[in-house]
């Protein structure tokens, strides 16, 4: 499942609530100025409460912040992470199977 999500989260088989959450996270990352009340309303329609929505916003914002710092400073990814962001098994030299 993790590999399917990394390759294409939209066709990975996520449930509708999770799909809404990921769409929101992508929008917040790629075009934060376009996030509005209707986006939050969609999350509420999927069962997320204010605490859950706040947690999502804070996690997305934190990762965007850290990535901007790393990219701005030219920090290279760790050797144990592949190009898709997956952990590489040290003994096998490859991504562990699910």
Poorly predicted ranges (pLDDT <50, ≥5 residues)? none
What class would the helix/strand composition place it in? mainly alpha
- Element string (H = helix, E = strand): HHHH
* Count of discrete alpha- or pi-helical segments spanning 4 or more residues: 4
Percentage of residues in helical conformation: 55-70%
Percentage beta strand: under 5%
Estimate the mean pLDDT confidence. Answer: 88
- Give the termini separation: 7 Å
| CATH topology (level 3) name | AhpD-like
| Inertia-based shape | globular
Q: Give the biggest sheet.
A: none
Which second-level CATH architecture applies? Up-down Bundle
- CATH homologous superfamily classification: AhpD-like
CATH class: Mainly Alpha
Number of domains: 1
Number of distinct beta strands: 0
Rounded to the nearest angstrom, the radius of gyration is 16 Å
Verbal overview:
The chain is globular, with a radius of gyration of 16 Å. It is built from 4 helices and no strands. Helix 2 (16-30) packs antiparallel against helix 3 and helix 2 crosses helix 4 (50-73). The longest helix has 24 residues, at 50-73. It has helices spanning 2-8, 16-30, 37-45, 50-73. It has one domain (2-73): AhpD-like. With 98 residues, the chain is mainly α.
């Amino acid at each position: 499942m993790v590999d399917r999500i990394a390759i294409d989260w939209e066709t990975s088989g996520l449930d509708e609530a999770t799909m809404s959450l990921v769409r929101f996270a992508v929008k917040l990352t790629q075009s934060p100025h376009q996030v509005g009340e209707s986006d939050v309303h969609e999350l509420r329609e999927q069962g997320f409460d204010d605490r859950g929505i706040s947690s999502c916003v804070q996690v997305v914002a934190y990762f965007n912040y850290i990535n901007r710092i790393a990219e701005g400073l030219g920090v290279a990814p760790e050797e144990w992470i592949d190009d898709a962001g997956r952990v590489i098994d040290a003994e096998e030299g490859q991504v562990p199977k699910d």
